[in-house]
């Protein structure tokens, strides 16, 4: 069956996330689905797992000569599918001068039933969408919202954590994480922060 054919699934419950990457056939110029390795998952103890669907080294993305795809498939770039950090750490700006402030990162979070993530902040603008189950997004102020499938958060470098609202069903969040410039709140420059 080709990727464009009609597809139907009777599968119930959690399944592996699939991502497809498009490109151009070098001989015809037509749009095609590229052959790429499966997603690499990292276990997050007590929470679930995460995978990086795609990343770029810069914005706007440079697609010329498939340089964005080559960077993603490489093991030695800030956009690498194997890199553990969600955003590009400041020290990598020196190691990888082509990154400027980094690029887009598309991250899948699979949150185990009943899991409560740790409070954290990344210096980024995140667009996070609940795509399966229900999740609670909690801020360090104590404010909370319940996200159902399709609901999303525009997160602006705030301290937060994810909580699966169900003790029996896995939840999923898809986040598009974009770099942002350093800025101050109450006269203090914000930094990446993790509270375990």
UniProtKB/TrEMBL annotation:
Q: Where is this region: Disordered?
A: 1-24
Q: Which InterPro entries match?
A: OryJ/VirC-like, RmlC-like_jellyroll, RmlC_Cupin_sf
Residues crossing the lipid bilayer are none
Q: Which SUPFAM superfamilies match?
A: RmlC-like cupins
Protein name from the UniProt record: Cupin 2 conserved barrel domain-containing protein
Q: Which species is this UniProt entry from?
A: Bionectria ochroleuca (Gliocladium roseum)
């Amino acid at each position: 069956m080709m990727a464009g054919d009609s597809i139907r699934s009777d599968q119930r419950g959690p399944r592996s996330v699939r991502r497809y990457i498009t490109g151009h056939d070098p001989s015809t110029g037509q749009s095609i689905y590229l052959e790429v390795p499966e997603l690499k998952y990292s276990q997050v103890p007590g929470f679930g797992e995460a995978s990086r669907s795609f990343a770029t080294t810069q914005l706007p993305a440079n697609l010329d000569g498939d340089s964005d795809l080559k960077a993603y498939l490489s093991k030695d770039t800030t956009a690498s599918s194997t890199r553990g950090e969600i955003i590009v750490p400041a020290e990598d700006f020196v190691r990888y001068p082509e990154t400027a402030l980094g690029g887009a990162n598309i991250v899948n979070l699979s949150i185990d039933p009943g899991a409560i993530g740790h409070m954290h902040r990344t210096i980024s603008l995140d667009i996070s969408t609940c795509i399966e189950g229900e999740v609670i997004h909690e801020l360090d102020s104590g404010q909370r919202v319940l996200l159902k499938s399709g609901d999303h958060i525009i997160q602006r470098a705030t301290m937060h954590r994810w909580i699966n609202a169900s003790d029996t069903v896995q939840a999923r969040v898809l986040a598009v994480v974009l770099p942002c410039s350093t800025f101050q709140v109450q006269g203090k420059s914000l930094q990446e922060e993790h509270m375990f």
